[in-house]
Specification:
Helix content of chain A: 25-40%
Number of strands of chain A: 7
Number of helices of chain A: 6
CATH superfamily of chain A: NAD(P)-binding Rossmann-like Domain
Shape of chain B: globular
Helix content of chain B: 10-25%
Number of helices of chain B: 2
Radius of gyration of chain A: 15 Å
Oligomer: heterodimer
Structural class of chain B: alpha+beta
Strand content of chain A: 15-25%
Strand content of chain B: 25-35%
Chain lengths: ~200, ~60
């Protein structure tokens, strides 16, 4: 029995057998991973090169005592407090196009959860030609304007969550109240894709 | 020729996808380009001629996560 006791047998079978990639374990990735585990996903591949910093605690699924730890290790520990029976593959490295393709090769879907536009685009360019479904996010900085955050299906295998305008480079801070909306929408899209439901 | 760009019918001279977008100020390296339902990735795909009646959409990738 996983974390989600309300699943049907079919839903449980699908979610427990799926592997989901998480590219980046920051505001988007750590929260999306937490929500996927609560939804019933048990097999995650998580990549992030960074360590937990005090400035991350406004939006990321970490705790003060974890400052200085590798994010992938801290996130794995936190996810296992929700559901001990997880199969986690962790990559504590900065991804390149080649390593991204290799890291997420067996995934049924990948959540793009990087912070820079360059890294986001690198991941999309690396994974989309292989036909792998990618759920990306762009435009989630600042406060308010919750209804501007939308889900768009683009091409055959990209889903883009966000408002596409609110950029941290414009001086808008990434704050939990808005980042977590986008992370939850990404997780919801992945669960819907896995279950064959409408996004 | 006519194309549909960002939901609006637009007249353009024959050109490439990249030239059309650059002329409209699109920052291609930080955008996802979808043409006729397909995502166009890489210089080669973007150097292709823009076809009449193409449906072209551009999505900005902005920082934050």
């Amino acid at each position: 029995m996983g974390a989600n006791t309300s699943l049907t047998d079919r839903e449980r079978r699908i979610l427990e057998s799926a592997r989901v990639g998480i590219a980046g374990a920051g505001g988007l990735g750590s929260n999306a991973a937490m929500l996927l585990v609560r939804a019933g996903v048990k097999n995650l591949t998580i990549a992030d090169f960074d360590t937990v910093a005090a400035s991350n605690l406004n939006r990321q699924f970490f705790f003060r005592r974890q400052i200085g730890r590798l994010k992938v290790d801290a996130l794995a520990a936190n996810l296992r407090r929700i559901e001990p029976d997880l199969r986690l593959t962790l990559h504590a490295a900065r991804l390149t196009p080649d390593t991204a393709r290799a890291a997420f090769a067996g995934c049924d879907a990948v959540i793009e959860a990087f912070d820079t536009a360059e890294a986001k685009k690198m991941l999309l360019d690396a994974l989309l030609p292989a036909g792998r479904p990618v759920v990306a996010a762009a435009g989630l900085a600042g406060w308010g304007r919750s209804n501007d955050i939308r889900v768009r299906r683009i091409g055959r295998n990209l889903v883009l969550v966000g408002d596409q305008t609110r950029d941290v480079r414009d001086g808008l801070a990434p704050v939990g109240v808005r980042v977590v909306i986008a992370a939850a929408m990404q997780a919801n899209c992945v669960v819907s894709l896995l279950l064959g439901e409408e996004l | 020729m006519k194309i549909t760009y960002q939901g609006q019918e637009t007249e353009t001279e024959p050109t490439t996808l990249a030239a059309f977008l650059t002329a409209r100020g699109v920052n291609i390296p930080e955008s996802v380009v979808e043409c006729d339902g397909e995502i166009r990735i890489g210089a080669r795909a973007l150097a292709a001629p823009l076809a009449a009646n193409a449906v072209l959409n551009v999505f900005r990738i902005v920082a934050g996560g």
